[in-house]
Amino acid sequence: MISGAAAAASVLARSSAGPLAGPMPGREIAAAPLPRPDTQTIRDAALDPQLLRKALAAIDRHAKSIRHRDRIAIVDFSAPSSEPRLHFLDVESGRASRLLVAHGSGSDPHHTGYAERFSNAPGSDASSEGAFVTGDYYVGKHGRSQRLAGLDPTNDHAMERAIVIHGAWYANEDMIAVHGKLGRSQGCFAVGETCLKATFDHLGTGRLLYAARA
User: What are phi and psi of 50, to 5 degrees?
Assistant: First the structure.
């Protein structure tokens, strides 16, 4: 099995030369379409290479938990909530896309649009940095949602805190035109309501979501 470090070297080398080729270990047969908007190649994706390296290195650390390596998601918390900073990478096809995603109110207490601090503590309403693995789906107070398990000491209370992926009106694109930024979650990765199905279809279960500042 190819390690995350080897995969990182391959991704970075190929992304500088063109679209990626060849399957990654543990891929599922059915390929999901990339969430839109802003679909492009990994080579042209507005993603910090160092952040990509960190995300792929996390696959090595958590190889037993991350079953599928064909598609990953990376949240760049260096960017404001007004920018599409949830990056979806399809390692097999070499395609990338990105969407808006909200951060927690505890990370942005003055509602500037920037995540200023992070916490793993229950009740903090803050976003957490680190590697997550996507879990099962359920219907809760935010409608259809997907559980996340935190794999690092910086986010290992994610299940206890009910940190999930869900859709929210305050993460819709029209919030940018009115307020210049998205609303805030209680630490969850909230995406626009019309983007939720595509997000779920792309990630599935047993895949990496990595969140950090570049």
Answer: -65, -35
